[in-house]
Amino acid sequence: MDFETHFSTRLAALKEEGNYRVFADIERRRGAFPTAGRHRDGEVQDVTVWCSNDYLGMSQHPDVVGAMVETVQSCGTGAGGTRNISGNTVHHLALERELADLHGKEAALLFTSGYVSNWASLSTLGSQIPNVAIFSDEKNHASMIEGIRHSRADKVLWRHNDWRDLDRKLHAAGDRPKLVAFESVYSMDGDIAPIREIVEVCEAHGALSYIDEVHAVGMYGPRGGGVSEERGLAHRIDLIEGTLGKAYGVVGGYVTGSTALCDFIRSFASGFIFTTALPPAVAAAARASIAHLKGSGQERQQQRARVAELRAKLDRAGIPHMANDSHIIPVMIGDPVKCKMISDILMRDHGIYVQPINYPTVPKGTERLRITPGPLHGTAEIDHLVGALSQLWAHCALSRAVA
Ligand code: PMP
Fold it and tell me: Choosing from 139, 246, 313, 340, which is the catalytic residue?
């Protein structure tokens, strides 16, 4: 086989479809977020970032930066090994206690990312619980899909957020062991699962419940424990999974649950056992971020106000966006080439950075700009964004929503 020709033909096809991903060459600057620098013609242009998952700007918070710097000074950079072989530190253990407390669980277990936490946990549970069937919401994230696939457990898809469909499918499975995997906030549409109903169905069928709260931890609930905390349901969910890389502004992933469940994953998950532990400074920074957001609702309130302001202004301008109850505002374009073009023009002419979201991240025909307002965006920046989108809507002859 001519490998090089194969690679370049496939890449050319992606470009043709408008689905080729291009990195934005932006540079984050301490204290400036959501403003970033972009190198252009030998100069640095200021751009406002509107698509960051550093939802609350915690990557810049003095407590978080301070904890990371201090721990690098005292511990050095890398962990130096897996958790089991020389990589464990007091910082990892303290962070796991912090996470268990956040979700009101007995224990927690850290991973190097949210992706790995889903992949490793589901592949372990699916392969190590004899005859288990995994019931997966059809819109679950790739990390869950891959983990389930790798486990080789029987997988049953249920219709997105449709607890009645889940109920029917669990019923049809008889009395074998069952695990139900779903998310709280779905990242691309920003819709929120009917968690209470799903939990009740799980309880009725004796199924193990597994929720991904990656887009909700730090953001929802009085202490940032996610939608399960906000709705008073965390104690009824067996396993809560989250990330340290989005609202907490650092990197890493975790699961929380009973001591036995976490110890089981710790003991059998290759994605936990055979990889270097997170740097201690990362663990310390994440812990500082969680501790801050447990005690402070200010960032969450400010963010909610910004989300409401942007939605109202988009409505007034007739820019179509998907309705949901979360902080994610999907502005619908519906065409991959236009989506990329609008994103490029926003960056080039308006100093606005919103990455286009195309297939396969979202279904074809639902291409969009995924906008995530944060507490650090101001009214002037919101007005600038809506003004630029309005101009582009007219320019690209996109249809407007009825205001
Ligand atoms: N779950 C969901 C729902 C996600 O959207 C993502 C990442 N976008 C992950 C898990 C993976 O988390 P991380 O970025 O920490 O690997």
Answer: 246
Instruction: State the virtual CA torsion across 340, 342, 343, 344 in degrees, nearest 10.
Output: 80
Nearest to 47 by CA among 379, 370, 345, 357: 345
* Chain segment 70-116, per-residue pLDDT in tens: 999 999 999 999 999 999 999 999 999 999 999 999 999 999 999 99
| Contact criterion met (CB below 8 Å) for 79 and 280 | yes
Q: How far apart are CA 241 and CA 251, in angstroms?
A: 14
DSSP 134: E
Shortest-distance atom of ligand 1 to CA 53: 8
How many beta carbons lie within 10 A of that of residue 378, not counting itself? 12
CA distance 27 to 39: 8
How many CB atoms lie under 10 A from the CB of residue 370? 22
List, for residues 58-79, the tens digit of each pLDDT value. Answer: 999 999 999 999 999 999 999 9
Q: Which residue is listed with tokens 């308006």?
A: 350
Concerning whether 246 is annotated as a catalytic residue, the answer is: yes
φ, ψ (nearest 5 deg) of residue 390: -60, -45
Q: Which residues line ligand 1 (CB under 6 A)?
A: 113-115, 118, 141, 143, 183, 187, 212, 214, 243, 245, 253
C-alpha span between 217 and 123 (Å, rounded):
23
ipTM > 0.95 for the complex: yes
* Token pair recorded at residue 344: 């490029």
Buried b (16+ CB within 10 A) or exposed e, 5-42: eeeeeeeeeeeeebbeeeeeebeeeeeebbbbbbeeee
Ligand 1 centroid distance, CA of 328 (Å) = 15
- Three-class SS of 235-283: HHCCEEEEECCCCCCCCCEEEEECHHHHHHHHHHCHHHHCCECCCHHHH
